[in-house]
Each structure stands twice: as structure tokens, then as C-alpha cells.
6-phosphogluconate dehydrogenase (Phytohabitans aurantiacus), 288 residues
Amino acid sequence: MNKQPVTVIGLGPMGRAMVGAFLDNGHAVTVWNRTESKADDLVARGAVRADTIQAALAANELVVLSLTDYAAVYDVLGSATTALAGRVLVNLSSDTPDQARTAARWAAEHGATQVTGGVLVPPPGIGKPGSSTFYSGPREAFEAHRETLEVLTATDYRGDDPGLAALYYQLNMDMFWTSMLGWLHALALARANGISAKEMLPYAKLALNLEYFLEFYTDRIDAGEHPGDVDRLAMGMASVEHVAHTTRDSRVDPALPDALLEIFRRGQTAGHGDDSFTSLIDIVTAQR
Ligand code: NDP
């Protein structure tokens, strides 16, 4: 069976990796990018350069968008709305769930179908085992193109709502950035004390392997139960205070532990001192 041809719009590191994976798997690929020269090596590998965005859209039913954000999507597609009818726009550009929903409506107004995606791996992970992408939007459109999309990563379809893939992606980014910044802060503290990132690597791997804690606390959190039987928030607060003091003693910026401490203090003030630190979920849920 002939492989489905695909258009890829946006040739940043991610779009370029995607074009490479499609080409490696025998798909005909049409490409377009604002900065034309980024297509040169891909054209040398067999991609077809579209001279205009209209031509890129006209070339194939399946159009993968890999742009910085949804503002860029409108910048690019806004001048070619007449070419959108009948296209399936697999929008792998990151943005908020609301932006994804608005863009899906905008696409529909122009006769196109948006399938939203949130890619969970960096460009070197594209086309490799163990990678995954959240998708959402009309199931039929997703299923029709699932096999082709699986050339890029495994797929995890979350539902009809076009905002869902963006939501799951942002949930992932929330955990990713806070964890990674925690890691960087610990490395700064280590460096201030003469310990290299390399020396810290085995300890960082252990500390950030939180599976035991996630498994242990998940059911309790869903049940709204935060007994202080294995940990008390007051104990956790003392621990964070020690981190903040060690940070200051090491002349490292204390902004991150101070922000944690502020949240623990609010939990303590709300009377959760003898509950588990997981009671902080109620503190961070309330919008201030
Ligand atoms: P980049 O921001 O590096 O590049 C994306 C593309 O967007 C470029 O081709 C750029 O064109 C284009 N672009 C940006 N603004 C405009 C505009 N106003 N008009 C026209 N074109 C525009 O992103 P990446 O390639 O790294 O990533 C693409 C998407 O994938 C992003 O949404 C990102 O969040 C997501 N993602 C990225 C990951 C990564 O590790 N890189 C991991 C997971 C998801 P030009 O070349 O002309 O500048």
C-alpha cells in the first residue's frame, strides 16, 4: 500500500525531525517554512519545497503543523484560508487548551479539521521507540491518520475535545519544569559546595525517581484523605526550611525554596500541620 503523503509546515528542530522520520519511512513530504533555507537539506533528502503556503496546503490532505505557538499558526495560515477546506490539520504546536479549542473552531469555519497534538519527546526522540504524543479532536480524523502519525511517536488519544491534548501536555510541562528547576537548583547548591553535576548524577536519578511516592499517595489524594500517619506537613516545612537555610549559607539564590516555604506556611496556617504534606493540594487549588 502506498504510504500517505504529508505536508509539514514549520521546520524548527521538531518539524525537521518529523520530516526526517516521514522521509525515512517512505512518505512523500511537502514542506514549507517562513525561513526558506531551513528546507534546503530536507529537499536534498527528498522532500518537496512548496513555494507558497497555499501550495503547501493544496499538496496534501494531511498537514502537520509544528510552529512555536498558535499565534504563529494564525500568522502562517491566516493568509491562505481559502486553501484550508478539506485539510486535516494535525496541530503539534504547543499552546493552552483554550487556544487549541479556539483554533479548532477557526479551522472548522474554513472547512478544515484540527487534530490537536502535544509531543512528549524532544526532537531526537522522534521516530524512536518509547516516545509518545497526546492527541485529541474528532476521533474519525485521528483514526484515519493514526498509522501515519505513529511514524513520529506512539499515539495517546485523549478524546473528542480539541483542548484535551493541550491540557495533558500542559500538565506534563507543569511537572517537567518544576522538577527540572528543582534539579537545577540542587545542582547550583552542589556547585557552590564544590560538587559537580556529574558527581550528583546518580543521586539526582534516585531523588527524581518518585514512583514510590506517586503510587503511595495517589489514591489518598483522590479520596481527599491526608492523614499524617507517615509524614506530617510540619515535618516537611522544617525540612524545606533547612533547604532554604543551606541555600542561604551557600550564598545561592533562595527564591525557589522560599516559594516552596511560602506554600508550606499557608498549609500550616490553615491548620494542616499534623496532616500529610499532600493536604497542600487544597492550598494550591484555591486561586488567589
Ligand atoms: P521553534 O520555535 O524552534 O520553531 C518552530 C517553527 O515556528 C519555525 O519553523 C519558525 O519559523 C516557526 N515560526 C515561529 N513563529 C512564526 C511566525 N510568526 N510566522 C511563521 N513561522 C513562525 O520550535 P520547535 O521546532 O522546537 O518546536 C515546535 C513545537 O513543538 C513547539 O510548539 C514546541 O513547544 C513543541 N515541542 C518542542 C519540543 C522540543 O524539544 N523542541 C518538545 C516537545 C514539543 P522560522 O524557522 O522562520 O523561525
